[in-house]
Amino acid sequence: MMLSFALNADVIYTMNKYLISIVGPTAIGKTALSIKLAQHFNTEIISADSRQFFKEMQIGTAAPTKEELTQAKHHFIHHKSIKNSYNVGAFEKDALQCLNTLFKTKNIVIMVGGSGLYVDAISKGLDYFPDIDKSIRKDLNKKFEELGISVLQKQLKLLDTKAYNSIAIDNPHRVIRALEICIGSGKPYSSFLNQGKANRNFKTITVGLTAERDIIYNRINQRVDIMMQQGLLNEVKTLLPFQSLNALNTVGYKELFNYFNGEWTLDFAVAEIKKNTRRFAKRQLTWFKKNESTLWFDYKTSAKEIIKDIDNTF
Question: Domain locations in the chain?
Fold first, then answer.
């Protein structure tokens, strides 16, 4: 049953509100689908991509183009600078405020993004973690700078094998976060996960796009080639003075920093971008597959067919 789009506030607040969350691996077509859904439901889009927040990172994050941004109103695209501190907790607060405003005149809002933690923060709420002595993180950061990430990975595997097997193990920020919780609380980081979620005043319908692995990998390889043609190398070059910032510890940027720093050849750096993006896509699918209520579609499925299935869930 289709929902009414009446603008009378007295009517609006007696009806259910729906957040349609579009997930899936990178390069699968989430942006294109989100725009079609936003146009069909006469609504707006919230981005839950943790790197598309930053205005300096446009090409390498595959952010919506200027043309795509005109086709539907987007929120949380290029609204921050890499110099700003912005994390999932701040995003949860900002996005929920945005949703409250949108739901005053909309019964449906679209959310799209491949950052699983950020997606879950909105639909489910964040996990609670105890306050930890800041000196622990300082010590871990120092160890990372002096010895590299492999030492921290081994330490996490000893303290919390479950977390080691589930988090983005190549991301120093995530590894250090898990370790500081283990060390500071004396309990596994994973023991704090999924202990209790926040209540939401809206219902989430999750739509997943996927494809055979070879297709996903080929689409990723093609996207990286297109990014290079669009000027990714020059974009990264302008960001060299800021390469130590956490926002830039991102696939597509860190590899090209190694090229500019004389550590890798350009061909090798591009090959590493493709390889690391494929690994990232595999982790995305693992994360999103945990949600058993997701409506999964082949990436070639028409928006019309997907909308029909969404309508049947209302």
Answer: 9-126+198-311, 134-192
Q: Which residues are annotated as a binding site for ATP?
A: 24-31
pLDDT in tens, 219-274: 999 999 999 999 999 999 999 999 999 899 999 999 999 999 999 999 999 999 99
Q: Of 63, 135, 122, 113, whose CA–CA distance to 91 is shortest?
A: 122
Q: What is the pTM of this model?
A: 0.82
For the chain of 314 residues, list the mean pLDDT of each consecutive stretch of 10. Answer: 40 67 97 98 97 96 96 97 92 96 97 93 88 93 92 96 89 91 94 79 96 98 98 98 93 97 98 97 93 96 97 89
- Binding residues for substrate, as ranges, are 26-31
Residues that constitute the known binding site = 24-31
Phi-psi region at 76: left, alpha or beta (left = phi > 0; alpha = psi -120 to 50): left
Residue 111: strand pairing partners: 21, 46
Residues contacting 270, CB < 8 A, separation 6+? 224, 228, 255
When the candidates are 1.20.1340.10, 3.40.50.720, 1.10.20.140, 1.10.3720.10, the CATH number that belongs to 134-192 is: 1.10.20.140
pLDDT digits (tens, 9 = 90+) for 178-192: 999 999 999 999 998
